[in-house]
Amino acid sequence: MSTSNKTPSTHSPNAADDEYEEEEYYIVASLPPEALSEAKLKAQNAKRSSNDIYGQPWPHYALVDIDTENPFLELEGSIYRGTKDELLGSTMVFETVVNESVDSKLLGVTSQAIKFQPVKLTKQ
Predict the structure, then answer these.
(1) 62-68 long-range CB contacts below 8 Å, 24 or more apart?
(2) For residue 46, which phi and psi values (nearest 5 degrees)?
(3) Per residue in 57-115, pLDDT tens?
């Protein structure tokens, strides 16, 4: 999972400037084993045009409060609550390109992880 964080630029003497610096960082996200397969099945049934590297429809998702200790993930209508953790050591994040051969490109390194668990939301 890659996320971007926009922070006000510090090199500008005028605070009214709408200049921002983007910072991209990576976080390892883990879900219950059945979560991604269920989401991919829902995405296939929805017949979306955006596909993953294997030509399969990519599930719709939304991350909320990624900069907090307990972010939320909505994945094809299912809600998950995350718990952030610091990994022992580092994890390398690769981009995989499938063409005649499988090529991998190092995108970044991270020591952050989020473990997502399903939650039920109820009206109060």
Answers:
(1) 63/1, 63/3, 66/3, 66/27, 67/5
(2) -80, -10
(3) 667 788 899 889 999 998 888 899 999 999 899 989 888 776 667 678 888 899 999 99
Tell me the whole-structure pTM to 2 decimals: 0.65
pLDDT for 70 equals 93
